[in-house]
Design a protein that fits this description.
The chain is mainly β. Helix content is about 10%, strand content about 60%. It contains one helix and 16 strands. It has a 16-stranded antiparallel beta sheet that branches.
Length: about 210
Amino acid sequence: MMRAKAALALPCLLFAAAFAARAAGADTFTFRADRMSGTRALGREVTILAGNAEVHADNMILRANRIEISGDNNQFINCIGDVWGIETERNIVFRADRLFYDRDRGIARLEGNATLEDRENEVVAKGNFIEFDEETEITVIQISVRLFQDDMVSRAEHAVYRRIEQILDLSGFPVVFRGDDEFRADRIRVDLETSDVTMEGAVSGTIRN
């Protein structure tokens, strides 16, 4: 019985060693989980982490029920189920049902009940799809978009959050609530530093003194 257990454990240990050696060539890459499996077939190498899975990749920490890692030098990370992550350099927190991260391009895509929290600028964005580009620091949010900052709440079907400029562009039946004030238009731009609102097309609003 002991021989059988050792025989089963040996391939897993060899696989883990091979994976760790491959990851060592990357900038920073560590992982842990309750279980690990995968394939080393040429051209479709995939590592699967299941149960309390966690990956530290460069400036990104990702946790999920299941994480799949693939591509040269672990380029692609696919997180599934109860996803949580943080981009440590900018202090941006992610939550979603599913998250796909391309390390080479520096792009994270969140799907299903997705949230991006920019803690440095106290901005929270929610939607069914969120894409964050690390290089440009531009976030695209789609479907049932909601964005919160201080006493301002913005809603739309499509939004672009430009983190560096602190500008929010809204389209698709956008509406902005700022305190007791309400603004509606075809397109709305919000300066998140000054709370100024610029509107275009079918403009309407209510300002309460």
